[in-house]
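User: I'm putting together a teaching handout on how sequence relates to shape, and I'd like one worked example. Could you take N-acylglucosamine-6-phosphate 2-epimerase from Streptococcus pneumoniae, show the sequence you're using, and then write out its predicted structure as C-alpha cells right after it?

Assistant: Happy to. First the sequence, then the C-alpha cells directly below it.
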Amino acid sequence: PKKDNPDFELVERLVKELDVPVIAEGRISTPEQARKMLDLGAYAVVVGGAITRPLEIAKKFIEVV
C-alpha cells in the first residue's frame, strides 16, 4: 500500500539492525520529518522532490536540522 508519510519505523529498524550508515529517503517533505529521521539515527536525509523553491525551502530545513 502507498504511504503518504516517510517510513520512520523502517529507518529506525535499519539503524538498529545494520552496522552501516543509513540514509533516509522517500516522502520527506518537511523539516520536521527530516529532523525526526536524524533523531532516529539516520546518517543523512535525502530531500529530493520536496525542493521546488531551493532557497526558500532549504532555509527552512537548515533552521530545523
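A couple of points you could highlight for students: Strands lie at 23-25, 44-46. The radius of gyration is 12 Å.
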